[in-house]
Design a protein that fits this description.
The chain has 281 residues and is mostly helical. It folds into 2 domains: 56 residues; 219 residues, MetI-like fold. Helix content is 75%, strand content 1%. The protein contains 15 helices and 2 strands. A two-stranded antiparallel sheet has the order 1-2. A hairpin with a 2-residue loop joins strand 1 and strand 2. Helix 4 packs antiparallel against helix 13. Its main location: membrane.
Length: 281
């Protein structure tokens, strides 16, 4: 077989595989967009082809979300919960990761692995004891219960992630800062944190995304519509028994996913640097 033909077959196979996975990954988002803008007459007519618009698109589903439901309240709740959890996670994980990476030697590495293993515990095993804690603090049926609970799974992973990144930063940089008059804490603030911005950005995106998509804890601790985050509100208040308001559900999911998609696309390089930064030294 000619070498040119072999090369052409390899390239065709490669780009064909890439196209397959792109379609596989992008189709749910395409389906969500199509469904969100379809009219009910188009959406529920089984004679219509479901993969494109058979009738003119409409904004009726979005109007219903903003005028007939507490959708804006759900958005605000999710934003408040996400920002609070991000702040708590950073304030806790940054010094913890730095201490484990710099001050404890091999025992710090073992402890870091132990902290990461707690992230792997399924939420379904934890919501019962956590519900007791929430009840004792009087936070039942409040979004602040989620602010209390979500750091239990964001802090372990983010500490482990930042720990690997801090290990990749040469110690000599901080030692030089200490020689120049900085305290250990000053070297951490002025040298370690600025050099760790990709990892910090990764923690922010990862934490906010987790809080935005979490469902089990929200369903367990919150029942009032005005306290629900967007994930729970869309999934529960837009379903009446066996009736699914698919247009409104997909419109809500589309609005919630756009900020996350924009953040990942704008900061993709830094996000990848933060994820992989602790892998090499």
């Amino acid at each position: 077989m000619p070498r040119v033909l072999v090369k052409a077959l390899k390239e065709t196979s490669f780009y064909g595989a890439v196209a397959f996975f792109v379609i596989l990954a992008g189709f749910p988002f395409y389906w969500m967009v199509i469904t969100a803008f379809k009219s009910d007459a188009d959406l529920y007519n089984i004679a219509n082809i479901p993969f494109w618009f058979n009738e003119p698109p409409t904004l009726e589903h979005f109007r219903y979300l903003f005028e007939e439901t507490l959708f804006t309240r759900w958005l605000w709740n999710s934003l408040v919960i996400g920002v609070c959890v991000v702040v708590i996670t950073l304030v806790t994980a940054l010094p913890a990761a730095y201490s484990l990476a710099r001050l404890t030697g091999r025992s710090g590495e073992a402890l870091g692995i132990g902290i990461f293993l707690t992230y792997l515990v399924p939420p379904t095993l934890l919501f019962l004891p956590l519900s007791r804690v929430v009840a004792d603090l009087g936070l039942q049926n409040s979004m602040w219960s989620l602010v209390l609970v979500y750091p239990t799974f964001t802090i372990p992973f983010c500490t482990w992630l930042l720990m690997g990144f801090f290990k990749a930063i040469p110690r000599e940089i901080e030692e030089a800062a200490i020689v120049d008059g900085c305290s250990l804490f000053g070297a951490f603030i002025k040298m370690a944190i600025p050099l760790s911005l990709p990892a910090i950005l990764t923690v922010v995106i990862f934490t906010f995304t987790l809080t935005l998509q979490e469902f089990v804890y929200a369903l367990t601790f919150i029942s009032s519509s005005d306290q629900k985050p967007i994930t729970l509100g869309v999934a529960t208040d837009l379903i009446r028994g066996d009736i699914f308001y698919w247009g409104e559900i997909m419109a809500g999911a589309l609005i919630a996913s756009i900020p996350v998609a924009i953040a990942y696309n704008f900061f993709l390089d830094r996000f990848i640097a933060g994820i992989t930064g602790g892998a090499i030294k």
